[in-house]
Amino acid sequence: MRKFWPFFGVFLLLIAAGGRDAVDSWVDRTELPSLLTDTSVEVMDRNGSLLRAYTVDDGIWRLGASAEQVDQGFLKLLITYEDKRFFAHGGVDFRAMLRAGAQALLNGEIVSGGSTLTMQVARLLENSGTGAWSGKIRQVRLALALERQLSKKRILDLYLTHAPYGGNLEGIRAATLAWFGKEPTRLTDAEAALLVSLPQSPNSRRPDRFPQSALLARERVLERSLAAGVLSFEDVEAALSEPVPNRRRLFPQFAPHLADRAQAANPDALRHDLTVDLPLQNGLERLAKHVVADFGSKVSIALLVADHTSGEILASVGSAQFSAADRRQGFIDMTRAKRSPGSTLKPLVYGLSFDQGLVHPETVVRDAPVAFGTYKPRNFDGKFRGDVRVSEALALSLNIPVVMLTEEIGPANLMAGLRRSGSVPKLPGGQAGLAVALGGVGLNLEELVQLYAGIANKGKAVGLHWRVSHKPEPNQKIMSRSAAWHIGHILSGIAPPEGAPRNRLAYKTGTSYGHRDIWAIGFDGRHVAGVWIGRPDGTPMPGALGGDVAAPLLFDVFQHIKPDLDPLGPPPAETILLANAQLPEPLRRFRSRGAVFDISPDRLTVAFPPDGARLLDTGSGVTVKLKNGVQPFSVLANGVPVATGIRRHEVALPMVGRGASVLTVLDAEGQSDRVTIWLE
């Protein structure tokens, strides 16, 4: 009973204040607390969905909220239960105070309170209690002052932001995310009633700890709403059948590395709008966690997806798990860690070589032991293919042809091409050498995806970005349109991994020295994506290969993006589409000026016919003479076997037709040689 007397004291004080003018003066002199209380920093996706939020300094989850963001049914229940004349009074409902006082006198205890929503806001803003009469007088005075300076909507917004909902939860949005795992835009009657009841006694009614207390409090709200005609009997019956939540949910933590990056870039902003697509981000985070479970406990993973037509990053997964206790060092954002790119730079080398007129996709290049001074590159599998077309050399990811081309264009020009794509390459020794083409440079996943985005964008650099408000900069040209089309055409012809859809995704894999970094980067007509797998500490993963590990994952990533690929598009008008025999003489065969081929005395070679020979068709076929090699031999014409099991160094091939033909000879040890002839 004593708790209620301050209401009467306040009422008498107002009467004794000397009339309306004195009360007005008393209210006008009120010093308002700050209305700009800290709220949680929020990171949103491209459609306004919450990706991640941060607690305020005191560890409170306090998300900003407004009446427009809240289910209207909840607002009706709230007004009906807490302050049914909210839109009519001036901050203090004297009628309610008198009624509450009369009920207390008749019943000997407090039956209903007289505190308005505005008075509750006053208490929340100053964190003042309700027991002391001085605090109650202050709430009345502050409530009257708030009503004079703020709109009803603004007062309601303050309540929706500051009302306590148990533990360190403040505000309706923090409450619905924690108790129901959703925003408050759509609530059931049962959910709304529980939320109305919680702020009156937030800790003793926590549904995860005191479910019976929460049920009874919710029931009282529903009963009063039924009596007021806000809910029907059927609505209440349905609401009473719903269980209260038995656990508190975790707050969203999608794209945590990118969210931290956004906050660090603009620490004063309360909201960061990212280009990320939440459903795609969620799907790829689940995929990354599933895939990495098959590896050791120290292996991490990174995925990145972007729209290369706009540069918008649609998903960024920096690790499989964002946790301090994770042995995979999950707090490290591996989309930004500088690592060796392995063979993923080869498309850039070929594109630059096309533009310099050094080669064409149909140009023949020799894949054989070679030395550049003391540097002797070898293919990944240790084998040599002899003469191959440039398109085959790229598709097979051969090392020797790409190093020869790098020697011709110059490592400095290769580095310049990387920088035009937007990359900031890191050179271990400070100066670029031929090994750059095979991964001897530091790049991160974001830079590699950006490079491939430029190739997909007809050779023009694409600045990847994650801010919705980003203003694009002028694009530099990495390579010509025709060179970019050739690269995409070659990469889209690479066979997909076993079990993956044959959808002609243009992609390239890479494995760095010592199996430390496993890569796969790919694109279609609109999207570009990249995969990295490895250990953050840089230690090897023996036996892991980009084609075996990262490529299948890349195809899975594109399945998450969309069911069908966008086509790459037709070749530009200036693109040269000719067979090798139709090319100008200098483009038919590439001859390195700086390479010294190691011609082993017992190496298999085609002694006759010579490469480029034009022979007369006499009807008896073509005679092929071989030198060295290990029997038995096999001969292919235009990729089709025409003679096998040959145990002599001379063979007649009757099945070679007129026109251009590529003759390939293989021996028992996998050595090969190749010549191109013309049969007239």
Describe the structure.
It is built from 21 helices and 22 strands. By secondary structure, the chain is an alpha+beta fold. Among the domains are: 257-597, DD-peptidase/beta-lactamase superfamily (Beta-lactamase, 3-Layer(aba) Sandwich); 599-679, Immunoglobulin-like (Sandwich), CATH 2.60.40. A 5-stranded antiparallel β-sheet has the order 7-6-13-12-11, sandwiched between helices. A 5-stranded mixed β-sheet has the order 16-22-21-18-19, with no helix packed on it. Strands 2-1-5 form a 3-stranded mixed β-sheet, with helices on one face. The longest helix is centred in the N-terminal third of the chain and has 17 residues, at 133-149. The model has no long low-confidence stretch (mean pLDDT 89). Pathway: Cell wall biogenesis; peptidoglycan biosynthesis. In the C-terminal section; belongs to the transpeptidase family. In the N-terminal section; belongs to the glycosyltransferase 51 family. Its EC number is 2.4.99.28.
